[in-house]
Recover the amino acids of this structure.
């Protein structure tokens, strides 16, 4: 009895002393959460989880490599406890979901006859799989086999479908997939994903500046899943209603169907599902990641600022928008006329974004009412500068300041703000872009008798959207091509009466590929107009740089076009905590460009806030094309006519600012969606070959 | 020569995993990837040799001397657990490079019956100190050998189409059975 | 510091309590364990070796220490009146460790009365036969202390069990050890028996 | 209370039955299941340790400092293992001999330590005992089942307590030849693997 007692006493004391001393002597700092998590794992160190013991597993959980449910013997309470500990850091606590990029569409042909074992991994080893399409899903269901939670099925078309309720985000499927078709990402990661050279991307999705997964939402529309389609769009674009109306849809230029037939009318389909949501009377809930506790200021409530704020909010940051105008929207509120984008629609859309918990402060001008100093003092850790390009270029000709002369954006904005403008009976709008068209079409609706467009090149070179040009032609605008204004002539009261211009002829093509107009000597011509509006482009108004007394402001660099200088891949300005995008960084561009750059800036800001190096997306496409995905011919297409956009007849639309373009009816939208070839989405034949494809 | 026999017997004939059935949990757990298997094998060699020595000393100079051999189980496991925890803390602080490669496997070994089992076998075989050292080492090498072989096979099996009910652990066990069968042929070698 | 102290104290107290508890369980079960060992390991073997005896070997057992190891000797009075002693030795080298062999030796003629395998953990069906198969161990009967009890393959006089050479060898090693021990300890054994 | 108690108890019998659902504690599972008797004996010994160590860990859960908790749990478990060892030696000696080294190795059975840490250290003593009992009985049943399969195929018999054969293949199926492979080491792996597959098959439906 005594020796046993003494022996155990001794050995216990020795072990206790050694352990407690060495825990002090060999103390190494590690994330305190690792110990907390480890305390809630089973501590059997059994290795059943595949990690080297409980502390490695705990470390993996804390580093976000393993889910809280990593432990195979832990109780449910243990898992919840771990999840709670990890909940302190929202970034890591965000639940992961599998997400498959490739889902349904047409099949790719076989390159060879495969007779090996039924495993994607095995087939991928042989020339990257038997399908002609090198990027797509192989479809033998390695991911399904890998899933322990029954959350994956091979769907009716043979591609994997994820059941979000069952998926725990363990990542087994992602590891099993040899093609990166199925990826496990948090919502934030999905939102911050940018097109990369190795992705399975249809040409349209490569082209879209906002990088919307176009084939996915068209497919969802086709299946009647309108809500899901809207959600797909909102992963990349917070303004589907606005874009569905005003986007010049560069995506359609690359549509494979357009090679043999007319391109799919992608934008009308977007408008169809977006309008469906608005008219359904209820908003589709938008998921956001848990709060991170970081604050970001977005200056400028235009498309770029709204997009940046929307995505920052969705990945968990607190965002406040500062806007100089009385209402949010920027150029799409004040630059785009009511008949193209009704204010009611825009209000509805912006409210949806604000409902995520974004605060807006309107009627405050950066540099005047607040500055960098006050933002920093209020605890904002980063700033997105999206002030747009509102400064019209002037023609630089004599008589430009006469009564009756206006500048394009200024005119549109003043009109939209409800200002009463003294109008004449005839007007000439100088310029060939969308702003010029917006001006002439607005003027027509204001009751002018004769409206001219004066443009120094020909119709072919007009940068405005084709549909806009056609609409203005229909509405009776008169085009004066190859004309360079030289003088505005006024009467004795200083009122404009005539516009003098020189006739031009086309010479050699210039850097932009357009043929340079050359003036014809002595060809001065007079046009009788009471109003002259110059809409020849804008540049950002960077007056805030001088107005803001904060010293740091002098470090902000501008380009010679007055745009804010930034690194185009990460959109960081010369002051590290300032990011910029949209027109204020690029000069006037498309709404959808601004939306894309807003999201890209959100990604950079997120990295910046997390203290990680702000690096460009690897192999980022940024609207470059993947060469192998751009075809010159497409076989087997039966020509079917593209859906025609319904619109209000010309005789009914000129009396008011009523919206001209209408949404496609449901059956037409479905018919149009059927025309989509579902490029880069499914690359195998699901009917044959393997039992796993048949069984599921 | 005697030590050579102990070594061969420990590695092949009485292979701790496949013939003695000790240490099977990490055998299945850490054999999914070759990388983990190698790390685990090294860590086991490291710990088992140390544990073999220290438990032999505890047994000979304390348990037998005090005539309290029935406390062997308690004292061995306590000593092994403390030793592993100590080594882990030591490596983490002093040799972080080694810790990253090998140390992270240490906690997995605390409750590894291969370590405890080998120490108990050393005692029941009445080895001398050197004999215990050699046999601990050989058991550990045997463990590593089986683990690495098994990991290699398992990586291949991942490519094969296995009927659903047999997937994962199930097929792994059957495979382990086949490997154990090959090890049976070493019987009678010494 | 308080944390360290509590770590040491809790662990020490716990191990001490454990030691005390185990010591009392041990002392409570000690006698019974001894009986069990005798009953299940030694008694059946001894029965086989000696047949009927007129004394109680378990009660009269004595211990002799030789080269640091304590050996238990069980004296027996056989039916024919002759005296014998039984003791256990271990042969190294079986598959699962050692093979225990109980050897009974006639004190007058110095011949082996019989031998039986007591403990083994050999492969069932093969090595295990050493325990169940009387033929193999019966070869030791009536062998003198000078007989070469090694396997025939190694120049001795014992036939190995077919398919179980390793076990057979372990058994013969135990038998040779018994011869050796008996020869060295005979005077002391006689002194103890009186 | 009664309901959750029943839940903790029954989950060990199917939902979390070791070693099938929780692939843990494999060493004794493979090593001692040559016969039903061995399997049952091992299972009961493990259950005893599970129940009492769960109880004690649960009682002491607020006293033990977290840095030495593993060491403390191990001491508690090892103490009960030694008690089992001594008691088995005193009362079921033949079984003790057959189980051999695997009795002390209950200490390092991941199931025991796993339950102590994952369950008992966070729950009340009553719950912990129910949990230990459930898991222990599940473990015992699996061991016995595996033992039965291996013994029938490998030796052709089922033997329970004291060497009485309750079932003999040779009498039921004349001409049956024992499949010695099954009682050897490789057979253990294969038998467990196949039984796991059968469990999966049943679970799927």
């Amino acid at each position: 009895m005594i020796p046993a007692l003494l022996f155990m006493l001794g050995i216990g004391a020795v072990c206790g002393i050694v352990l407690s001393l060495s825990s002090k002597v060999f103390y190494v700092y590690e994330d305190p959460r690792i110990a907390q998590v480890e305390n809630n794992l089973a501590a059997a160190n059994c290795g059943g989880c595949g990690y080297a013991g409980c502390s490695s597993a705990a470390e993996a959980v804390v580093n976000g490599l393993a889910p809280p449910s990593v432990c195979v013997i832990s109780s449910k309470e243990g898992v919840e406890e771990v999840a709670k500990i990890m909940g302190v850091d929202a970034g890591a606590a965000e639940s992961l979901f599998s997400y498959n990029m490739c889902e349904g569409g047409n099949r790719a042909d076989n390159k060879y006859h495969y007779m090996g074992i039924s495993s994607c991994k095995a087939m991928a080893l042989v020339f990257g799989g038997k399908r002609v399409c090198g990027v797509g899903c192989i479809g033998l269901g390695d991911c399904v086999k890998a899933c322990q939670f029954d959350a994956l099925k091979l769907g009716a078309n043979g591609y994997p479908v994820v059941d979000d309720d069952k998926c725990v985000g363990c990542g087994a499927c992602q590891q099993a997939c040899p093609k990166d078709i199925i990826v496990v990402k948090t919502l934030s990661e999905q939102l911050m994903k940018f097109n990369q050279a190795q992705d399975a991307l249809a040409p349209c999705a490569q082209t879209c500046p906002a990088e919307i997964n176009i084939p996915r939402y068209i497919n969802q529309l086709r299946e009647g899943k309108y809500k899901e389609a809207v959600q797909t769009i909102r992963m990349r674009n917070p303004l589907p209603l606005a874009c569905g109306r005003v986007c010049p849809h560069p995506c359609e230029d690359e549509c494979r169907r357009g090679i043999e037939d007319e391109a799919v009318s992608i934008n009308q389909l977007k408008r169809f599902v977006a309008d469906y949501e608005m008219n359904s009377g209820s908003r589709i809930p938008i998921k956001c990641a848990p709060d991170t506790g970081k604050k970001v200021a977005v200056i400028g409530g235009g498309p770029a600022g709204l997009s940046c704020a929307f995505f920052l909010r969705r990945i968990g940051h607190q965002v406040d928008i500062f806007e100089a105008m009385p209402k949010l929207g920027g150029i799409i509120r004040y630059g785009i006329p009511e008949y193209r984008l009704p204010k009611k629609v825009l209000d509805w859309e912006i409210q949806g974004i604000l409902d995520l918990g974004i605060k807006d402060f309107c009627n405050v001008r950066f540099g005047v009412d607040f500055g960098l100093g006050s933002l920093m003092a209020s605890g904002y850790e980063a700033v997105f500068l999206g002030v747009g390009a509102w400064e019209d270029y002037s023609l630089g000709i004599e008589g430009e300041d006469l009564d009756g002369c206006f500048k394009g954006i200024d005119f549109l904005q003043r009109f939209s703000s409800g200002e009463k403008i003294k109008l004449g009976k005839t007007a000439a709008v100088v310029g060939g872009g969308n702003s010029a068209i917006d001006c002439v079409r607005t003027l027509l609706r204001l009751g002018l008798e004769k409206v001219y467009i004066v443009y120094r090149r020909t119709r072919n070179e007009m940068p405005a959207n084709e549909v806009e040009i056609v609409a203005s032609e229909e509405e009776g605008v008169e085009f004066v091509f190859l004309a360079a204004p030289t003088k505005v002539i006024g009467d004795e009261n200083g009122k404009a009466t005539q516009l003098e211009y020189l006739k031009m002829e086309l010479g050699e093509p210039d850097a932009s590929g357009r043929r340079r107009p050359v003036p014809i000597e002595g060809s001065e011509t007079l046009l009788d107009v009471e109003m002259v509006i110059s809409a020849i482009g804008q540049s950002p108004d960077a007056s805030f740089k001088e107005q803001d007394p904060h010293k740091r402001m002098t470090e902000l660099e501008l380009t010679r076009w007055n745009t804010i200088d930034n690194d185009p891949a990460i959109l960081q300005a010369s002051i590290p905590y300032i990011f910029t995008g949209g027109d204020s960084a690029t000069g006037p561009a498309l709404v959808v460009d601004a939306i894309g750059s807003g999201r890209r800036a959100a990604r950079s800001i997120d990295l910046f806030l997390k203290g990680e190096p702000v690096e460009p997306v690897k192999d980022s496409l940024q609207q470059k094309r993947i060469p192998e995905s751009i075809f010159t011919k497409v076989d087997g297409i039966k020509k079917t006519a593209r859906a025609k956009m319904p619109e209000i007849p010309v005789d009914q639309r000129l009396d008011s600012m009523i919206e001209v373009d209408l949404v496609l009816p449901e059956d037409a939208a479905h018919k149009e969606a059927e025309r989509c070839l579902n490029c880069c989405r499914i690359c195998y034949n699901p009917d044959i070959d393997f039992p796993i494809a048949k069984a599921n | 020569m005697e030590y050579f026999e102990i070594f061969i017997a420990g590695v092949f004939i009485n292979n701790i995993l496949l013939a003695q059935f000790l240490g099977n949990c990490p055998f299945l757990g850490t054999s999914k990837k070759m990388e983990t298997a190698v790390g685990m094998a090294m860590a086991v060699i490291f710990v088992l040799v140390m544990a073999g020595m220290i438990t032999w000393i505890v047994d000979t100079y304390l348990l037998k001397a005090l005539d309290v051999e029935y406390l062997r189980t308690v004292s061995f496991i306590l000593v092994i657990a403390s030793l592993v925890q100590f080594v882990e803390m030591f490596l983490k602080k002093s040799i972080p490079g080694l810790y990253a490669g090998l140390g992270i496997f240490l906690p997995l070994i605390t409750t590894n019956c291969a370590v405890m089992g080998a120490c108990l076998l050393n005692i029941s075989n009445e080895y001398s100190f050197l004999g215990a050292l050699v046999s601990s080492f050989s058991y550990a090498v045997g463990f590593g050998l089986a683990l690495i072989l098994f990991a290699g096979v398992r990586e291949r099996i991942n490519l094969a189409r296995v009927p659903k009910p047999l997937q994962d652990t199930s097929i792994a066990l059957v495979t382990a059975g086949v490997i154990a069968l090959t090890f049976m042929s070493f019987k009678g070698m010494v | 510091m308080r944390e360290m102290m509590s770590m040491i104290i809790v662990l020490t107290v716990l191990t001490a309590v454990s030691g005390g508890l185990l010591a009392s369980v041990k002392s409570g079960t000690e006698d019974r364990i001894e009986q069990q060992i005798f009953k299940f390991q030694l008694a059946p073997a001894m029965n086989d070796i000696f047949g009927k005896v007129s004394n109680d070997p378990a009660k009269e057992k004595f211990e002799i220490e030789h080269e640091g190891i304590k050996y238990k000797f069980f004296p027996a009075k056989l039916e024919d009146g002759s005296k014998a002693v039984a003791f256990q030795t271990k042969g190294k080298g079986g598959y699962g460790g050692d093979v225990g062999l109980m050897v009974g030796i006639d004190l007058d003629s110095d011949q082996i009365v019989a031998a039986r395998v007591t403990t083994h953990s050999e492969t069932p069906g093969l090595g295990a036969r050493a325990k169940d198969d009387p033929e193999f161990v019966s070869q030791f009967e009536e062998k003198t202390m000078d007989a070469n009890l090694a396997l025939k393959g190694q120049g001795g006089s014992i036939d190995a069990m077919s398919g179980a050479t390793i076990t057979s060898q372990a058994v013969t090693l135990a038998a040779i050890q018994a011869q050796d021990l008996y020869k060295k300890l005979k005077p002391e054994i006689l002194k103890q028996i009186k | 209370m009664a309901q959750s108690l029943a839940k903790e108890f029954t989950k060990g019998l199917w939902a979390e039955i070791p070693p099938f659902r929780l692939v843990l504690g494999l060493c004794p599972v493979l090593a001692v299941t040559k016969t039903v008797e061995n399997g049952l004996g091992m299972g009961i010994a493990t259950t005893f340790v599970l129940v009492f160590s769960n109880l004690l860990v649960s009682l002491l859960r607020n006293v033990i400092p977290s840095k030495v908790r593993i060491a403390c749990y191990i001491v508690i478990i090892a103490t009960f293992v030694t008690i089992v060892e001594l008691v088995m030696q005193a009362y079921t000696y033949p079984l003790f001999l057959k189980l051999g080294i695997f009795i002390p190795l209950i200490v390092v059975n991941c199931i025991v330590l796993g339950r102590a840490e994952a369950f008992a250290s966070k729950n009340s003593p009553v719950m912990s005992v129910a949990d230990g009992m459930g898991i222990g009985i599940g473990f015992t049943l699996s061991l016995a089942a595996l033992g039965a399969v291996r013994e029938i195929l490998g030796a052709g018999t089922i033997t329970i307590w004291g060497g009485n054969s309750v079932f003999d293949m040779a009498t039921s199926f004349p001409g049956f030849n024992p499949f010695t492979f099954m009682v050897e080491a490789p057979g253990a792996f294969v038998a467990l693997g196949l039984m796991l597959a059968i469990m999966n098959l049943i679970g799927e439906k």
